[in-house]
Design goal:
2% strand; 2 strands; Growth Hormone, Chain: A; mainly alpha; globular; 483 residues
């Protein structure tokens, strides 16, 4: 592969005009945006969730539920995707939305930390009206965070469709989503450096002095990292759409952008039964993949006796495994066995790895948990590469933003359900079982069952049928406009 910004030309336009192909440098630069999303995910799920549950003693269901609010506004992804299709900002369909969305979700993350401390302080006096009010405010902040995340990440994913050809998408997916894992690793390591080690030896309960030091570290982290994320997001996407986008040349509706209404885009979206099948597959796969997100740090703390900084580093092991899985699948597995078979292989491997996490808990040895997360990450990376490659293929050029919004909706809705369900199942497990390991094991077991269900749904997905139905629906929209 050439290390250049535009390595080759491809006849991607409708009139046969050669279009520049993405080079490795541009793919890596685009990956910086995904890296930023990975960093922010560690800050929200890895740190805020752990601190609320363990250090501030907020019930897991409430802590996970407030954070999950940013996923429950996922239907907005359809609207933001359609807006980026039909309403360019200063002549560009994707870039302006990416920048504005990033600015807003970095600001929301900073505000969320300040609300968290107020909620924890209020809870020390018991469940008063003030406490419930702070819970509501925390949920509202994460609603705003989710809207901003949708406004930025959905047009970014649509941009990847616009600037790539079908044959180079597996490599693009591999590099860009590998950078997401790099972000998770960087976020975990950086966060651990900002967080103080407790002065007591058990790592279970923080004293007043330790909590004050933790607050200072978290505040510093959330003041610095969002500024860095905003700068990297601008650098990652500046000029890419102008140079590489095939949106105008591919779309049969290019001269009638104002006609791509949300209603018409949804008609194209729902024209094939394959849309519903793949949507459902994404739901099952993503729920089963991320239920552990809301409980993994607490698992490390309560079952393995790990400190806050140590449980934050667990993200690095999962991230490194996922990075290896994505890179290996994109460059070696997908070209050999195909996108669908890669996703199937990954789902089965994830189910096996989840059972391994339960077995690791029997030893209470943190090293076993770290290795288990590395294997879980490897399986997750294979699954992610196969599923995302399929996702980009199941997209019509004319309404790329809307389709990406739909797939993003499935994933975000599933992440929300996974986050809340993970916390709720953990609380249920604690009521049913006396041992913490059994409570966490219940979460991981349900995940494994769900992942095997996703394999069955995947077997019914047919890309060729989807493309034929989508093109028929697009032709119907055009004909109705002419009539």
């Amino acid at each position: 592969m050439k290390i250049s910004d535009a390595s080759d030309l491809s006849p991607s336009s409708m009139d046969g005009t050669a279009m520049p192909r993405l080079g490795l440098v541009t793919m890596l630069r685009l990956g910086l945006y995904q890296m930023c999303l990975g960093i922010m995910s560690v800050l929200t799920l890895g740190i805020l969730n752990r601190v609320m549950i363990n250090e501030l003693a907020i019930p897991a269901t409430i802590a996970a539920g407030t954070i999950a609010m940013h996923q429950f506004v996922a239907p907005s992804r359809l609207w933001f995707g359609q807006m980026s299709d039909a309403r360019p900002i200063r002549g560009y369909h994707r870039t302006g939305y990416v920048w504005l969305g990033t600015l807003m979700f970095t600001l929301a993350a900073f505000v969320a930390v300040q609300v968290m401390w107020q909620l924890g302080s209020s809870l020390e006096r018991g469940w008063t009206a003030s406490t419930y009010a702070w819970v509501g405010i925390m949920g509202l902040v994460f609603v705003l965070y989710g809207l901003a995340l949708s406004a930025g990440s959905t047009p970014f994913a649509a941009l990847l469709v616009d600037i790539s050809d079908e044959d180079d998408r597996p490599k693009l997916v591999s590099i860009v989503w590998s950078m997401l894992m790099v972000g998770i690793v960087i976020g975990a390591i950086t966060s651990a450096r900002f967080l103080p080690q407790p002065t007591n030896s058990t790592c279970q309960d923080l004293g007043t002095a330790d909590l004050a030091a933790l607050k200072a570290g978290v505040d510093r982290l959330f003041a610095i990292v969002p500024v860095v994320v905003m700068g990297l997001a601008i650098f990652a996407t500046a000029g890419v759409e102008k140079k590489f986008s095939r949106f105008s040349s591919r779309s049969t509706l290019v001269e009638r952008e104002d006609q791509i209404t949300l209603g018409r885009a949804v008609r194209v979206l729902t024209a094939s039964r394959q849309t519903g099948l793949f949507f459902t597959f994404l739901l099952f796969m993503t729920i089963s993949l991320f239920m552990q997100d809301a409980v993994m740090e607490s698992y490390g703390g309560q079952v393995f006796g790990m400190c806050v900084a140590d449980t934050t580093r667990l993200n690095a092991f999962w991230g490194m495994g996922t990075l290896l899985g994505i890179a290996g699948a994109g460059f070696a597995v997908v070209p050999r066995i195909g996108k669908k078979n890669t996703a199937r292989l990954g789902c089965i491997a994830v189910a096996i790895a989840l059972i391994g996490l339960i077995v690791a808990g029997l030893s209470a040895n943190p090293k076993f948990l770290q290795w288990g997360l590395l294997v879980f990450g490897l399986a997750s990376g294979i699954t992610t590469t196969g599923a995302i490659s399929l996702m980009l293929d199941l997209t019509a050029a004319e309404t790329a933003g809307t389709f990406i919004g739909a797939w993003g909706l499935a994933q975000a809705l599933a992440r929300a359900i996974a986050t809340v369900t993970g916390g709720a199942v953990l609380d249920l497990g604690k009521l049913l079982f006396g041992a913490p390991l059994l409570a966490y094991g219940l979460v991981f077991s349900i995940q494994a069952i769900g992942m095997l269900s996703a394999v069955w749904l995947l077997s019914r997905v047919n890309v060729a049928e989807f493309k034929a139905d989508a093109q028929t629906a697009i032709a119907s929209v055009i004909q109705q406009d002419l009539d």
